[in-house]
Amino acid sequence: xxxxxxxxxxxxxxxxxxxxxxxxxxxxxxxxxxxxxxxxxxxxxxxxxxxxxxxxxxxxxxxxxxxxxxxxxxxxxxxxxxxxxxxxxxxxxxxxxxxx
Amino acid sequence: xxxxxxxxxxxxxxxxxxxxxxxxxxxxxxxxxxxxxxxxxxxxxxxxxxxxxxxxxxxxxxxxxxxxxxxxxxxxxxxxxxxxxxxxxxxxxxxxxxxx
DNA sequence: TTGGTATATCGGGAAAAGTCGATATACATT
DNA sequence: AATGTATATCGACTTTTCCCGATATACCAA
Lengths: 100, 100
Known about the structure:
2 copies of one chain form a homodimer. A 3-stranded antiparallel β-sheet of chain A has the order 1-3-2. Chain A has helices at 3-9, 13-23, 25-28, 44-51, 55-67, 86-99; strands at 42-43, 71-76, 79-84. With 100 residues, chain A is an alpha+beta fold. Chain A is 57% helix and 14% strand. In chain A, strand 2 and strand 3 (79-84) form a beta hairpin. Chain A has a single domain, classed as Orthogonal Bundle (Arc Repressor Mutant, subunit A), CATH 1.10.10.10. In chain A, 27% of the residues are buried. The structure holds a DNA duplex (30 and 30 nucleotides). Chains A, B: Keywords: DNA-binding, Transcription, Transcription regulation.
């Protein structure tokens, strides 16, 4: 993954917010039936609702974050759940501490 | 400083390279008369030369990095020297570790 | 004060990102 | 099979970023 793409993914207020929400889903989203936050994350619809942006925009934003390895997804039935990707974020932290 | 602006500043290959060069100027730039790397940094002309981009572009890039608190500048005679801003980079690292 | 060098700012054209509504796809339920 | 719901993709339009050359400003030297 190109470093520039990681920073581009983070260069947007809504995408930064999404990462913040996913860091503590229980604080930012209502209870979910059939899928716990820790294991699978939060479904697209909830994220969209909270963001106030259109469904298509949020879907694209999530895939940008995913391409940057900052989040990961799981499909369960008709829902796609996204959660933080700890490894990707640790790698980012390392880039900043060692290369910049 | 807005977090988004920090990440935007980092969303460009050349600007990332500049930060990398400024992390270890002695490895990336020739000796400078009258100004040592540790205290004042590297002058715009040297950075431009190494980047291969135009003078105006590099001048703008440096000011983008400076507005994001990632570098700082010192004017000495007709030269402006830029160096890494440790504090800003530490703050960035903290943002990533605590908010994302 | 005239000219030379270093850097900053301005104006612009091309490319990329932001964001939407419409449509497609995937899955579930009846 | 038909319909409904969740998400992804497409096409378009607007705004922002990239990067340049030209020009302005600041400082220095003769």
